[in-house]
Amino acid sequence: MYRPVILGTQPAERADATRNRLHLLATAREMLAEQGADRLTMDGLAERAGLGKGTVFRRFGTRAGIFQALLDDDEHNFQRQVLSGPPPLGPGATPLERLIAYGRARACFLIEHRDVARAALDGSQPIPIGGRTPMSQIHIRMLLGQVGLDGFDLDMLTVQLVAALDGPVLLYLSSDEFTDAVGELEQGMGRAWQKLVERVCRP
Amino acid sequence: MYRPVILGTQPAERADATRNRLHLLATAREMLAEQGADRLTMDGLAERAGLGKGTVFRRFGTRAGIFQALLDDDEHNFQRQVLSGPPPLGPGATPLERLIAYGRARACFLIEHRDVARAALDGSQPIPIGGRTPMSQIHIRMLLGQVGLDGFDLDMLTVQLVAALDGPVLLYLSSDEFTDAVGELEQGMGRAWQKLVERVCRP
DNA sequence: CACCTAAACGGACTTTACCCCGTTTCATCG
DNA sequence: CGATGAAACGGGGTAAAGTCCGTTTAGGTG
Predict the structure, then answer these.
(1) Cis peptide bond upstream of B128, omega within 30
(2) Tens digits of per-residue pLDDT, A133-190?
(3) N or C end of chain B: which has fewer CB within 10 A?
(4) Nearest-CA distance from B27 to chain A in Å?
(5) Would you say A150 and A66 are in contact if contact means Cβ atoms under 8 Å apart?
(6) What is the pTM of this model?
(7) Which among B41, B132, B175, B196 is the top mutation candidate for probing chain A, defined by the most A β-carbons within 10 Å of its own β-carbon?
(8) E strand or H helix at A183, and its extent?
């Protein structure tokens, strides 16, 4: 029997699966808006969506998986801006300018979506820095390559910079105090990121 | 009724509490060595230690708290080295040299104690970077102050550097592959840290 | 030494993430 | 179409973290 196997293509999601996935995400957003992230339980979500618990877990694997899916969803816009939007975030500016712009934009993005971002962290799978968001990793790595630094282990430097970018944000996410003065915080982080990157990339 | 209130001094731990705390830590280390961190449950620990579950939770608050306590314990030696050991880790070298030495030493420390360090992370209380280990925070902040950098927000830079230091280690902790080649990894991280700090601090 | 209070103790109870597996539904192929 | 295998579904079951509150005990006071 002939079966056309296309490498790297997994079997394609079934129609009912897609429908349920989208419905669950929508329901999750509703509950998130109404009750906040920590009041969202898997049982509750399943019941409200009119589906079985097992279904929820098959779709998202884990509780954090739901929030990761929501975050991925939000991230699509952001990715478009980065990959094909106007400079300095998109192509057209110098690598250093894009690096600076990227850090600022990502900090803003995470702060805006802090509720979801925070809930997307998972203790039992502790890769908070760059493992779950390969986008930052890949993009920063590419830009660093274009900068043309000598004598650096660029992969390691990438991990360091991603961490330096996410670290302050995570620290912020973890304290429930700063609910005001968000704009100011974004500015501070942006400035700090710019300074750091300029120093590192200085010839 | 007169009560001598000494500010900043909490009521002092009761003798039985101390005894139980130490006994629990010792038992936890045994179980850790025998079964690994993820097979260590609160019920199991309580039973093996011959104590009630409530006691375990009063002492450590949370599961991660146990591992944090174990890590704190391990950290005492390290702290002594940093605060009063020989240069370049201890006092006597230039701030930049100490900064470099500190990063190397901390990376080695975390890698050595990776089992406990990993289990000490807590998803529901996500402050993985510098919040739970104010030691790095404080020490690096102090050294940066001594370096004499102009135009930096030193507090923010501290958070960035702590993250850049911990990030690669956390990333490493999360992948169960590299169980070999530990020495090599420590070297790579050490070199990368040195390069980063030298660049940032360069006049 | 008897008393008293605040802290510590124990373990049943609750909550919730996650697993399992018998049942149902989709999509493909003859 | 109808058959068929694979995938999805449902929801009861399990394990483990964390809470509660009635009971016990350490250690200071008169």
Answers:
(1) no
(2) 678 889 999 999 999 998 899 999 999 999 999 888 877 766 655 556 777 888 899 9
(3) N
(4) 23
(5) no
(6) 0.85
(7) B196
(8) helix A182-201
